[in-house]
Specification:
mainly alpha, 2 domains, two-stranded antiparallel ribbon, 10 helices, about 70% helix, disordered C terminus, transmembrane
Length: about 270
């Protein structure tokens, strides 16, 4: 038996290897914070924010009246809501439906504009982000991806659709404390992790490398999405978070790909 090192061969699929762990997550946020302060990245913040803002205005303009009308008709058929509403009116307080319907309408329309901004950041801003961080910190990571644009657009479409459908279907659970907070965090963690992890590596990683990275760093990507979802609870963060999250995932994904390509394998050759 003899061993022969292979110095620059990527690790075989399925080969065990350590992930970056919390250190990699912290490093990604630290590098993203530095990158976000660059003038080009500050300017990039405007694109998804303005598109999300315009989308929100259009949704409110064209969708508010029909949505609130439909919700009002549906609420009139909910026995629990009717009972509570009648009791509140009888004791001289207020009508629950007057406040419930606008809140539900806003809870549907505003997240839709938010996911639109995130999708725009994933498809159109991520290439700018990758070019920015790639030229400065990941020059050795050669782009070897295939059909990057098609993969990115498809991923943005299905994630946006899944987010929208899941968000609306689980809205009734918001009436059960503390599900409103938990569902908000879950769906936005899903959106950030599923949307950004593909776009962060699709231009640089081969399909085989992408499959291995997504499997090896699944918890890492979900952790990034969870932290971004927590930040998303703060309304001022809505302005910069689409681009900042793209920077976080780009740093994490390219760092993981760089380490993957630096790994070596040992071929065991039987010469007996």
């Amino acid at each position: 038996m003899m061993t022969r090192p292979s110095s620059s061969v990527p690790a075989r699929l399925g080969a065990p290897a350590p992930s970056a762990g919390m250190a990699g997550i912290a490093r990604a946020f630290k590098r993203a914070t530095v990158s976000q302060c660059h003038p080009s990245m500050l300017f990039a913040v405007l694109l998804p924010f303005l598109i999300a803002l315009a989308g929100g205005i259009l949704l409110l303009w064209f969708g508010w009246a029909p949505l609130t009308g439909w919700l009002r008709d549906e609420a009139s058929q909910w026995h629990v809501i009717n009972s509570v509403d009648d009791w509140l009116i009888s004791v001289g307080l207020f009508s629950l439906k007057v406040y419930l319907v606008p809140v539900l309408a806003a809870a549907i329309l505003l997240p839709l504009s938010g996911i639109l901004g995130l999708a725009i950041a994933a498809v159109f801003v991520m290439p700018l982000v990758l070019r920015h961080v790639g030229e400065r910190e990941y020059k050795t990571v050669a782009p070897r991806g295939r059909h990057a644009t098609a993969v990115s657009v498809w991923n943005a479409l299905w994630v946006s659709l899944a987010f929208g459908v899941g968000w609306v279907l689980t809205l009734p659970l918001w009436l059960v404390p503390p599900m409103a907070l938990l569902l908000h965090i879950f769906w936005w963690a899903f959106a950030f992790s599923r949307m950004m992890r593909i776009d962060a590596i699709v231009e640089h990683a081969t399909p085989a490398e992408r499959e291995l990275l997504l499997r090896r760093h699944n918890m890492g990507f979900w952790s990034l999405g969870f932290i971004c979802a927590l930040i998303n609870l703060l309304p001022p963060a809505w302005i910069f978070l689409p681009v900042f999250s793209a920077l976080v995932f780009a740093h994490y994904g390219l760092d993981a790909l760089q380490r993957l390509r630096q790994e070596t394998v040992i071929d065991v050759i039987d010469v007996s």
